């Protein structure tokens, strides 16, 4: 019996409120103004030719599209941004991530998060009212998605990544399960039995382990991890194969493979703390941040022209 691995994330209903201008948006306006005077835009365009950012830096927006995105409801905005970015990054429908808008509990320092274990993007609710900023954050996370695809497509590294992801995902899921149900009472268990479904037997076994003590809980944890690991491994292998079918494999000794190895090390090292100085200076984050900056400029430019 596989334990649910969605980490209790809910697709929160989004509300359309009056648009506000964030500090990030205000700074972007200043950048566009300065760029027009200093020729910065032309220098930025040249930098695209010598980095991976050139592939996805430009979203190919236009004045009509941006004006619509600024005025439509938040739900319509999200639906359209999702389609625009999937097209921009060449991601097919079956490989598009699940997008959760305005999820409480996200680190306040993060505008959005791409969870490479669950293939989801979650955004911070405080940016719901800034269309420009929200667009740039979602695109930033799409860049991490593409980096993850590059990891999984790489010969040798892809197999290693799938095994590491499966182990990490299983461990986190089981730890969350134990944290959530370790203090459940007999009365609560009886009340929740219909909702628990197949997980009922695991919750009951956890209750017995808690009564016996810490060693029994660790033994229970190891048992479930062993049970769920292969399930997650098979799911991730299937997902990887879909990516390979669409994009092809990356040769192990290629330049792309070496870059993918750096992405992989970044992802694993910074998974639990994406806001540290080390994480912010990593290749994967710098690349995504560059794409985000280009997006801010492009969106703001087409708001007026």
What can you see in these coordinates?
The longest helix has 34 residues, at 214-247. This protein is 66% helix and 4% strand. The protein has helices at 23-38, 40-48, 53-56, 63-71, 74-88, 131-153, 157-181, 186-196, 200-212, 214-247, 255-269, 277-280, 283-304; strands spanning 98-100, 112-115, 120-123. The protein has a 3-stranded mixed β-sheet with strand order 1-3-2. Mean pLDDT is 84; it is low at 1-21 and 28-50. The protein is built from 13 helices and 3 strands; from the N terminus they run αααααβββαααααααα. It is mainly alpha-helical and 305 residues long. It is globular, with a radius of gyration of 22 Å. The chain has 2 domains: 23-155 and 268-304, no CATH class; 158-248, no CATH class. A hairpin with a 4-residue loop joins strand 2 and strand 3.
